[in-house]
Design goal:
It is an enzyme of class 3 (hydrolase). The two termini are 21 Å apart. This protein folds into 2 domains: 105 residues, Sandwich (Immunoglobulin-like); 347 residues, Alpha-Beta Barrel (TIM Barrel), CATH 3.20.20.80. It has a 9-stranded mixed sheet with strand order 4-3-22-19-18-17-5-20-21. Helices cover 24% and strands 27% of the residues. By secondary structure, the protein is α/β, with parallel strands linked by helices. The longest helix has 18 residues.
């Protein structure tokens, strides 16, 4: 049961403190003929649980929306869902008591939480650090003799990664993303304000940057953390923007292609991080760029042999560019699509953290369903936790987060969209496969997706964006039919 608190922003947060924090029950396969429904609503439900039964026949009214599930029609396989172990997240979590720190990580990664299975790790600093830095800021150190992890890794990232691994019942796929190379490798000699690696792929700067990845992977490996993958650069198009405020490094798709085939791919393979050990992921920028980057890089066999998939962010996602995902998949079906960053920025507003706001819940639920229905195999949120201001952030780029920490009272607040994320991450375990779903007598603002889990159970996720409830009739062509009802502004997961 959520300990609800209303801050006047349209919905409520769930408060966690030393005396109480709501847990979620582990998900189990239901018995024959039984459907378990979990619902989160604007009116206050948080994973409210109920049971339904299959019926031999279901009579539908003209106002009922019919949903057909066809587990025989299969699409993409799920990699996972997760968030980012940023410096700021770790710094905020560390302000809590040891017991409360474990509760935060457990809320994300344990079977009593939302069971995240992905984790993104900034390679060095990002804007969500207290200062700009990399792992080797010694000018001209092409041998990387001075490469070293920092206090941010040792105190704010690695302890919580290990805690998550300890608390998770499943493997957590970890992937790293650099925001910038060391400034001395760059054309502008700065960590921010855009800029590119000096020269062209194949030269000592590009080779050293490839070796920088190896040093990072080795350093984490020595601390018993094995990475599943890397993206080559966070938002590489920022390199063209000389006014870009925080850590950045530029690549065009052509530069990234040549860097992969001439430097990064061979150097990783020689160091023991070949394609069988590490997923190299291209792009990691906005959704409108996905198909162009895939076409440039994956059409070249010498580069494509080292690549596993493409990553994208949500900040420029619109209904008009969702076809980018379809085009990339249709042209290169053997390479996965991964949503690698999202957060509510509250552009134009001075206050960046809105406790209990439903708007962010709506954005998240809609975006995740839309991406999943267009071949996306995984979805990664941004910071795991931030403070009441939405930081710290060394350039003041404050944003919202699913968990907001109040360090002065040793408590934290689970935003409504924390539970939105859980309706996907807790039910769509890795290796779940999207199945065929059709709507009949459909209503605008009712969004659905369906999956077959690895345990052979079926999951249906339904989101009602409307201010009115909707009656549902669900027909699984293999199992039978059942009737249900979805409240206004409500997200449901059926299993």
């Amino acid at each position: 049961m959520c300990a609800a608190r209303d801050y006047g922003n349209g919905a409520t947060v769930c408060v966690c403190n030393q005396s109480y924090c709501d847990d979620l029950r582990p998900i189990a396969r239901t018995g024959a003929g039984i459907v378990t429904l979990y619902e989160t609503s604007k009116s206050g439900d948080r994973f409210a649980e109920s049971e339904l039964t299959f019926q031999t026949s279901v009579a539908n009214s003209t106002k009922t929306v019919s949903i057909e599930l066809n587990p025989n029609v299969l699409y993409q396989k799920i990699i996972g869902f997760g968030g980012a172990f940023t410096d700021s997240a770790g710094l905020n979590i560390q302000t809590l008591s040891p017991e409360m720190q474990r509760r935060v990580i457990g809320d994300y990664f344990s079977s009593k939480g939302i069971e995240y299975s992905l984790g993104r790790i900034p390679i060095g600093g990002s804007d969500f650090s207290t200062h700009p830095y990399t792992y080797d800021d010694v000018n001209g150190d092409f041998t990387l003799d001075h490469f070293a992890l920092t206090v941010e890794d040792l105190d704010f990232k690695i302890p919580y990664i290990k805690m998550a691994q300890e608390m998770s019942a499943n493997e957590i796929k970890l992937y790293g993303s650099p925001w910038s190379s060391p400034a001395w490798m760059k054309t502008n000699k700065k960590l921010n304000n855009g800029g590119f690696l000096i020269g062209e792929p194949g030269n000592k700067y590009y080779q050293t940057f490839a070796n920088y990845f190896v040093k990072f992977l080795d350093a984490y490996s020595k601390r018993n953390i094995t990475l599943w993958g890397i993206t080559i650069e966070n938002e590489p198009n920022a390199g063209y923007n000389s006014k870009y405020l925080w850590n950045s490094l530029g690549f065009s798709p052509e530069l990234q292609r040549d860097f992969i085939k001439q430097d990064l791919g061979p150097i990783l393979a020689d160091a023991g991080y070949g394609v069988d050990k590490l997923k190299v992921i291209i792009n990691d920028d906005q959704r409108p760029t996905v198909s162009q980057w895939a076409r440039v890089i994956l059409s070249d066999p010498k580069a494509a042999q080292y690549v596993a998939g493409s990553a994208f962010h949500w900040y420029e996602s619109t209904p008009e560019n969702i076809d980018q995902l379809d085009m990339a998949h249709n042209e290169f079906p053997d390479y996965f699509l991964l949503a690698s960053e999202a957060c509510e920025e509250w552009k134009g507003r001075e206050v960046k953290v809105s406790l209990g706001d439903w708007h962010t819940f709506d954005r998240y639920a809609h975006d995740i369903i839309t991406d999943l229905n267009h071949w996306t195999a995984g979805w990664t949120d941004w910071n795991l936790a931030l403070d009441l201001q939405g930081g710290p952030n060394w350039v003041g780029n404050f944003v919202d987060a699913p968990i907001i920490i109040n360090k002065t009272s040793n408590e934290y607040y689970k935003q409504p969209f924390f539970y939105a994320l859980g309706h996907f991450s807790k039910f769509l375990s890795p290796d779940s496969v999207r199945i065929g779903v059709k709507q009949y007598n459909s209503v605008e603002g009712l969004e659905v997706t369906g999956f077959r889990r690895a345990d052979n159970s079926t999951v249906l996720i339904v989101y009602n964006r409307n201010d009115e409830p909707i009656d549902l009739s669900v027909n699984d062509i293999n199992c039978g039919s059942f009737k249900s009802h979805i409240k206004a502004n409500s997200l449901q997961s059926y299993i």
